[in-house]
Fold this sequence. Notes:
There is one protein chain. The chain is of the alpha/beta class. Helix content is about 35%, strand content about 25%. It has 9 helices and 10 strands. Strand 4 and strand 5 (about 80) form a beta hairpin. Helix 3 (about 110-120) packs across helix 4 (about 125-140), helix 4 (about 125-140) packs across helix 5 and helix 5 packs parallel to helix 6 (about 185-200). The longest helix is centred in the last third of the chain and has 16 residues, at about 185-200. The chain is globular. It binds adenosine-5'-diphosphate and magnesium ion. Magnesium ion binds near residues 56 and 57.
Amino acid sequence: MTEVSVTKDAAPAADPLVVLENVNKHFGALHVLQDIDLTIARGEVVVVIGPSGSGKSTLCRTINRLETVDSGTIRIDGRPLPAEGRELARLRADVGMVFQSFNLFAHKTVLENVVLGQVKVRRADKKAAEQKARALLERVGVGNQADKYPAQLSGGQQQRVAIARALAMDPKVMLFDEPTSALDPEMINEVLEVMQQLARDGMTMVCVTHEMGFARSAANRVLFMADGRIVEQASPEEFFTNPKSDRAKDFLSKILHH
Length: 258
Ligand SMILES: Nc1ncnc2c1ncn2[C@@H]1O[C@H](COP(=O)(O)OP(=O)(O)O)[C@@H](O)[C@H]1O
Ligand SMILES: [Mg+2]
């Protein structure tokens, strides 16, 4: 098997926002992130793809310190990730994360879900936080659902609320970990459209997704991961038409032909 070593960034990071240097992470004997070097520029949209178990979620989770790393450094906007306390809470607000499962508070209304972090972490005034929440809910197309509880919404609507909740913190970067993979097919597009719009608005985004249409139209760069490594990275056009490594070719043939 011929493996292509990590290529340099497709677009050199003029204004680096997220920088990982020589990051390694183990789960017991499993070396789940191996020598990860990655620089994401402000405003860049990076799509991460790769087989299950390749470390995509772990990569995302290390960037907002839901997982610690064993060695190497991660910096957001020039600052190393804080270890704990208020600084860590602020970091988590700076790095918005949207998961496959929506993780909304079930016993709070949609509006309260979007207000909560603003007041607790950002120390926003309650009235201002509510106004901002309503505007964001409007922006993601669920303005009329504000007073409902999450369970009363469809999966697609809940995921859009989760995006609004992350945006309410004025994040510097948004991480999406397979945000559409738990959704019924007819709801996938409404979530991808919100993500598309965010990308057009200049948000820095890291998106783990196998939605190739989204990758092609929104991503500046595609990272292909396998066995804890970034095996290949290129523009979407280059990656999808001319994958270089056998691992990427094999992976693409599986996801494109079903
Ligand atoms: N908390 C954990 N404890 C032990 N192993 C884990 C844990 N989280 C993930 N793993 C393992 O690490 C590897 C990478 O997982 P993950 O980052 O979730 O991959 P992906 O998102 O690409 O499917 C997998 O083999 C997975 O089983
Ligand atoms: Mg995953």
